[in-house]
Structure formats: structure tokens, C-alpha cells
Amino acid sequence: MLSRIDHIGIACFDLDATAELYRRVHGFEVTHEEVNEEQGVREAMLRVNGTDDGQATYLQLLEPVREDSPVAAFLARRGEGVHHIAFGTSDVAAAAAEIGGAGVRVLDESPRAGSMGSSITFLHPKDCGGVLTELVQAAGAETPRQGGNTADPE
Ligand code: MC0
């Protein structure tokens, strides 16, 4: 059901300076930028591989745009660093229902808007070994990759 790593979210105080660091040190370019008002973040996507076809993996840099946002709280408590890991799925609602049915707290009643037109939901870090976990259904059709960690439905 979770077939790939969609992105790793990294909290930072200064998006432009952090993007420049990832360009200079790692060689990754910003391939997309947007503000997600609902989540209270300005974000930059740095594509690590592939194309924007719903199968690529990204680093996602997150800068809070307001103090009462989850990323602002995280930065105040823990400082900069890895904020969450996001797994790709072809059906975020079904994945959330299955995982929620196993007793893991799903943090959204229904999927919300995520980066690049995706649908997302979060799982509580305390139920995921201390890791805030996001489920992502990329915009458009997404077919699980061969060799992904998915049971073959055949
Ligand atoms: C908090 N905790 C974390 C954490 N945030 N642990 C690991 N990773 C994180 N990112 C831990 C705290 O250290 C604390 O543990 C406990 O969870 C409660 O934290 P809190 O500071 O009291 O905060 P809460 O409980 O009010 O909220 C935490 C929670 C919240 C994860 C439920 O941040 C949330 O709903 N997050 C989901 C939405 C989100 O993060 N949006 C921003 C990214 P201790 O042991 O110290 O008590 S938006 C995004 O990423 C988008 C746009 C996209 O991908 O497309």
C-alpha cells in the first residue's frame, strides 16, 4: 500500500539559505515552490530523482509562515532538521483507513491539500517510533512501482 518514499520534510528557519546549502553541498536544485496556508508553511521541493510524474523523490524544505504552525512549534522545540518522512500511495484515504484501523492515530479526518496538488494525511509520531509520518497521493494517477514494498494484488 505504501510503495515508495515521496519526500523527506526538513524544517528550517530560512528557506532560501537552506535551499542554497542543498544546492551547494548536495547539488540539488529547487524544482518547485509554494505556500501552503492551511499548514502554515512556505516550502521548496528539491527533486532528487526522476521527473514530476508522481514517482519521484524529493527533499521538502519547510519554513513556517506563522508562529501557531506545527513547523514553528517543531523549530522552537527541536531546532532545524528532519521533520517528517512521507510515503507515496496510490490511495491515501484507503491507506489511512487501513493504518488507522491498526490503532495508529491518523491526524486528519480526511485528506488535505499537499505539495504540487497532492492529497496528504499525517500519522502521529508517537505511534510511528517517534517519526512524524505523512501519506501522499501524488496529483494524477499513481501506479505503485514494481519492486516497491507492496503486496502483489494478483
Ligand atoms: C512533534 N513531535 C514530533 C514532531 N512534532 N516528533 C517527531 N517529529 C515531529 N515532527 C513530538 C513532540 O516532541 C512531543 O513529544 C509530542 O510530539 C507532542 O508535540 P507538541 O509540540 O506538543 O505538538 P502537538 O502535539 O500539538 O502536535 C504534534 C503533531 C502536529 C505531530 C500532532 O505537529 C501535527 O498535527 N502535525 C501534522 C501536520 C504538520 O506537521 N504540518 C506541517 C508540514 P514529547 O515526547 O516531547 O512530549 S506540512 C507538509 O509537510 C506539506 C504541506 C506537504 O508535505 O505537502
From TrEMBL:
PROSITE patterns: VOC (PS51819). Keywords: Isomerase, Metal-binding. It is an enzyme of class 5 (isomerase). Residues 4-138 form the VOC domain. Its EC number is 5.1.99.1. Pfam families: Glyoxalase_4 (PF13669). One of its GO terms (molecular function) is methylmalonyl-CoA epimerase activity. PANTHER family: METHYLMALONYL-COA EPIMERASE (PTHR43048), METHYLMALONYL-COA EPIMERASE, MITOCHONDRIAL (PTHR43048:SF3). NCBIfam families: metmalonyl_epim. Belongs to the methylmalonyl-CoA epimerase family. This is Methylmalonyl-CoA epimerase. It comes from Streptomonospora algeriensis. The lineage of its organism: Bacteria, Bacillati, Actinomycetota, Actinomycetes, Streptosporangiales.
